[in-house]
Amino acid sequence: MNAEIIAVGSELLLGQITNTNAKFISSQLSELGINVFYHTVVGDNSKRLDEAITVAESRADCLIFSGGLGPTKDDLTKETIARHLGVDLAFDEVALTYIKEFFARRGRAMTDNNRKQALVLEGSDVLANHHGMAPGMILTKNGRTYILLPGPPKELEPMFQFEAKPKLVALLNTDGVISSHVMRFYGIGEAELEDRVQDILDAQTNPTVAPLASDGEVTLRVTAKAETESEAQRLIAAKVAEIQAIVGDYQYGMDDDSLASKTVEMLLDNELTISAAESLTAGLFQSELAEIPGVGGSLIGGVVTYTEGSKVKQLGISQELLDTHGIVSSECASAMASAVRTKFNTNIGIGLTGAAGPTAHDHQPVGTVWIGIAINDEEPITYLLHLSGMRNTNRLRAVKFTCHYLMQLLVERGFSKR
Amino acid sequence: MNAEIIAVGSELLLGQITNTNAKFISSQLSELGINVFYHTVVGDNSKRLDEAITVAESRADCLIFSGGLGPTKDDLTKETIARHLGVDLAFDEVALTYIKEFFARRGRAMTDNNRKQALVLEGSDVLANHHGMAPGMILTKNGRTYILLPGPPKELEPMFQFEAKPKLVALLNTDGVISSHVMRFYGIGEAELEDRVQDILDAQTNPTVAPLASDGEVTLRVTAKAETESEAQRLIAAKVAEIQAIVGDYQYGMDDDSLASKTVEMLLDNELTISAAESLTAGLFQSELAEIPGVGGSLIGGVVTYTEGSKVKQLGISQELLDTHGIVSSECASAMASAVRTKFNTNIGIGLTGAAGPTAHDHQPVGTVWIGIAINDEEPITYLLHLSGMRNTNRLRAVKFTCHYLMQLLVERGFSKR
């Protein structure tokens, strides 16, 4: 089966929003082994949408639409498809009741145009929308499958995963399975990583190995085709081990792991508490850790010391140290890490100072960052970065490098990593 | 002129990355008054790319390609277009020299496949790449314009703005201009905003007014067509004033403003210093302010007090208050705001506490957030939110509402807002 994803919405063509739905659906289809050869975006225009459907039918046997199912007169996806296929629209009673209850629960009056959302293609399977009002649909006609999903990602994503995907899998009636896992690396460039695993990349057949770099991270996607899921997983595990033997030192995790989630996992597993003193990142390191549920078992807190005075007053760093070595210095990062660790009585203290940009700070060029890491009573270790991005890319990179170095250091000290 | 944007890259179809280039180019074209009727994404496959070009030529007179200009054998955009148009590829000496110097500067050996990046379509205008190696191209043939841009956004965006756009404007040879501005609102839902400006939306001709909601914010894009730029700006200003008369209370800014940038601007303009004590947001409020260059004139710093103990120990909040009212309470947010203001000796102190999710916290349901704002010696004001998103959406919304309420409060106190 090969699919085309058609996003409907003039706001996409005006550049007001990004087509994240296509990315989401594509990654889901990729895991099912369904090929996606094209994405199309078309505006809220019935004629042009109709033409896009004709083009897509000439090159795909599954058309997946996102958007245009809402109550306004701009929303015309199902009306256009109905006309295109010569299928009627009819009210779905379940959806209509759901919409009425949606308004009743909120104590708001239901306007007439909201009824329109309960219209569905006759003969289609209705996909329930548990996060909004417009239901989705799946219809097979003339040997082709049409799936209609709502535009808002918070409605589309659960509807695809829990309503559409099982029906799609049933349609596939496939003999084998395709599975894939993503290996995640940090602290190594894409070119260097590729160079080091070049023999594996050149020899790949099944599993395939595909590198990708973004946001300073590099990933390798390992995809296997097999008779059974367990056989596919076995093939992947063997290839992953082969790659780890070469560049395992740089791998921080798999699949949906992030540097922050792996760091939090490692801290919790080893019952280590952490605090941070942040200057250029101004709370971003702590905030990134706090994205992970359960972090409260490790993150006690910390300070943001954005000004020179606050470093002296809040952390007790000596004015002499700052005068001698500067704010953006190994000595300052080290003193910040030590001071915050003592102040918050944690196992680990982090100190972050640097020149994020757009202008030099403390006579240091933009992109200069010092990271200090204090573990228990050890002398803090410091790391120097020379980053080349914009202000906020540099701030985020500084946070990612902090996670990377902290995990490396903990592994060196004998702490366990999953 | 109407344009189609064709992104080339299998990683897009696999759902590994999002097509942010299409959004960027679309918003740029929208400002030039160039219609975009379709976006297409196609993989690194010469045959399918060729077919996509044929389809696009049937419906657009400007084709803009992103991606596939790199050194690897997967990169085949210009080769495919050359074959499609019957045009030769030739080495561009300027680009070749630039690539050689690029490697020399980094002290790395230039591999042979990198030469391929200097190949350009014969007869095209070469677009310099100041942030990478592969040059772009613009070529007019058979009455159609073909623009080739590299895939990485940090290369594509400046190349489009500074190299391609001026050439595109010259081609347009337009009689009039189209300009637009975006009005930004917070603290009001999309439906309510639309309802209140319904008469304006119904009567719109020139300027047009288009609403859009995302990330808890609502915007109105006001677009005018006129003989001259100044006439377009005059039309927009009049319409903006008309809208402001109705819903101006909720408007926080225009165009590229963010809640954080406007908050920082207001703090700096009024010479107000700020500090924050953060629990559920764990540094995110301070970090968002720190995204804005120059914030060091106002943001002194603050504390993250993620645990109950750290609220007592670092901020001196009484255990009795926490036992009586709980951590997620008006009293706690108020005490946090006061304490951090005193500790950092700032004009304003912010306190943020709540249950971000995924589970209830301190017996309060997920999404309950208390914001405390202390201004000078006044009794702190507190605000209660009931948010319905996921953990990190709730954390970000809490930060946005803090900016929104803080600006409202400062306006009420007579401080100036641009």
From TrEMBL, chains A, B:
Report what the protein is called. Putative competence-damage inducible protein
Similarity comment text for this entry = Belongs to the CinA family.
Superkingdom of origin organism: Bacteria
Under Pfam families, the record lists: CinA, CinA_KH, MoCF_biosynth
- Supply the CDD domains for this chain: cinA
Q: Which InterPro entries match?
A: CinA, CinA-like_C, CinA_C, CinA_KH, Competence-induced_CinA, MoaB/Mog-like_dom_sf, MoaB/Mog_dom
Sequence ranges assigned to domain MoaB/Mog in this UniProt record: 4-171
**Which SUPFAM superfamilies does the entry link to?**
CinA-like, Molybdenum cofactor biosynthesis proteins
Q: Supply the PANTHER family for this chain.
A: NICOTINAMIDE-NUCLEOTIDE AMIDOHYDROLASE PNCC, NMN AMIDOHYDROLASE-LIKE PROTEIN YFAY
